[in-house]
Each structure stands twice: as C-alpha cells, then as structure tokens.
Amino acid sequence: MSNIIEIAGLTYHYQFEGEEKFKALDDLYLQIPEGEYLALIGPNGSGKSTLARHLNALLLPSEGRVMVEGLSTSGEDNRYEIRKLVGMVFQNPDNQIVATTVEEDVAFGLENLAIPPEIIRRRVADALEMVGLANLAHHAPHLLSGGQKQRLAIAGVFAMQPRCLVLDEPTAMLDPRGRREVLETLKRLNHNEKITVVHITHFMEETLEADRIVIMDKGRVVHEGQPSDIFSGAIELEDLGLEIPSIPRVVQILRQGGLNVPPGILDVNQLVSYLC
After folding, report:
1. Which candidate, 41, 55, 42, 44, places its Cα nearest to that of 10?
2. Helix, strand, coil shares of the chain as percentages rounded to 5?
3. What sign does the CA torsion over 11, 231, 88, 195 have?
4. Would the pLDDT of 41 be above 90?
5. Which residues of 169-178 are buried (b: 16+ CB within 10 A; e: fewer)?
6. What angle, 0 to 180 degrees and rounded to 10, lies between the N-to-C axes of helices 176-193 and 117-130?
7. Position 197 pLDDT exceeds 90
8. What is residue 5's predicted lDDT score, i.e. its pLDDT?
9. What angle do CA 24, 29, 32 make, to 5 degrees?
10. Which of 107, 127, 136, 181 is deepest in the core (most CB within 10 A)?
11. How far apart are alpha carbons 266 and 225 in whole angstroms?
12. Which long-range contacts (CB under 8 A, 24 or more apart) does 94-97 make?
C-alpha cells in the first residue's frame, strides 16, 4: 500500500510578536498509507492541530518536509493540487457553512472551481446521500442540529472529491447523538469510498475502530499502533494525561484482579462473549 502522506523531520515554530519562538513540532516523522483510518491523539499542546494544518499546506514547515502524493507542501506551485487532495474539517461547523440552503452550501466550493452545473448537481446529490442529509437538501443550515451541521461540512469537502480527509476535533462541540452521526459518516467515507481519514480527537472511545492510533506529545510522535496495542495496558496513557476507554479499562481491572482476560478486547460484546 502506497503512502498518500509522508512527513520527515517536520519542525515548526510559532513566532508571536515580542516573544521568543515556540517549537510546536519537533523533528516529527510520520507516514500515512492511502485508505487508512488514522486516529491522532495527545494531550493539549502536543501539536496535533499544528500537524493537521501542515497536511494541506495551511502551515508550512520551518524545517523538514511534508509530501502529499509526492508533492512538497513547500512548493508554492503544488498547493492548489495538494488542497484538492486533502480536505479539512474543523471543530466548529458554523465556520464552514456559507449558504442559505443545505444543497447550495455543498455546491459553493464546486461553483468557485467553475465546475459545470450538471456535474455540480450530481456531486451535491452524491455527497448529501453519503452523509445522510439528502432529505434536508432544501433546508436552511441554521435549522440543523449540531451533528447535522458537521455532516454538512463534511459533505461540502467530500463533494470536492479529496483523497484524504483531515478532521480536527470534529465532535468536540456535539452531544452523544451528534458524535455518533459524525463517526458513522466517517466510517462510511473510509470503508465505502476508500478515503483516507486523519481524525484528531480527545475522545478516546472514538479511536477504537481506527486502523492505527498515533499519540503525540511535545511535538513528536511518541507511540503508534493498533487500538488493541495502544490500550493493552503496556503504555502508561495516564502519564500523558489521556484517559483509557471504558472497556479496555475494565479489562485492565479484571486482569489486575487475577482474571486472565485477553488484553486486546475493546468493546462490550467481545468482553461479554469472553466472560460468558
């Protein structure tokens, strides 16, 4: 499987007026295979959001390189193509909603690219169907729930046909139902459309179905592996200020109590099946 994104030696400094440079990313290395669902976690200030903004050239390396499909983000002539390949969805969907109806909002970016109207109509319909909003095409976005607004923001990016979708805390402002709606949408995009997903989150439960989890701290990748590896108990997540999801935590408690429960159990059905 080829890598859609390759990062080598990435260092980035923020420079605030009247203050010393702050190193947000420190000699970071990471490869993201095409089609992967990657969950990116870490304590506040670990550099997750800064890294996300490097993936489609919103920020540029102070040192090192970020390559997207072989294109360097540092090359000014590459950035238009890179931003077509990598779409961004942010924490607050209201910041990405610009039109007066749902379908017009999805069409907005396509119209700016001067795509023919018949293609726009097809892409808008496909995007709304994919995120489960086809029946709300003529509704006003401000009347949608939080989860629906975030799915609308995802639809707007999906209509642009990116190869990779980067989401920076997309469920942070949502209630449990809205979070579930967004997560189901991301799984469909990854499984059905084969879109690479980079999902930044502070909700540990959201990482359990990822192909790989990457943990950042102080601007570097400090751990990576499948969810069963990350939550097996071998990594002291609490030392990094990270919570352990509920079922892996129960498994740890049972193992500490002398019950020989396999450490790779991640969900309640697996645990019930083992115990019964």
Report:
1. 55
2. 40, 25, 35
3. positive
4. yes
5. bbbebbeeeb
6. 120
7. yes
8. 98
9. 110
10. 127
11. 14
12. 94/149, 96/153, 96/156, 97/141, 97/149, 97/152, 97/153, 97/156
Handedness of CA 134, 138, 142, 143 (dihedral sign): negative
Task: Please give the structure tokens belonging to residue 249.
Answer: 């935590």
Cα 35 to chain centroid, rounded: 13
Which of 46-55, 139-148, 257-266 bottoms out in mean pLDDT, i.e. has the lowest?
A: 257-266
Confidence (pLDDT) at 113: 83
CA distance 105 to 111: 10
Domain ranges of the chain: 34-49+80-235, 245-276
Determine the Cα–Cα distance for residues 154 and 131; give it in Å rounded to an integer. Answer: 8
Which of 78, 80, 52, 58 minimizes the C-alpha distance to 67? Answer: 78
Q: Which CATH class is domain 34-49+80-235?
A: alpha beta
Q: Report d(CA 25, CA 36) in Å as an integer.
A: 23
Residue type, 171: T
Q: Quote the CA–CA distance of 250 and 265 in Å, as a whole number.
A: 10
242 to each of 23, 43, 183, 245, how far by Cα in Å?
22, 7, 20, 9
Number of neighbouring beta carbons within 10 Å of residue 236:
8
Residue ranges in 138-207 assigned as alpha helix (H): 146-158, 176-193
The predicted pLDDT at position 1 comes to 74
Task: Look at the block and give the residue holding tokens 């050239």.
Answer: 57
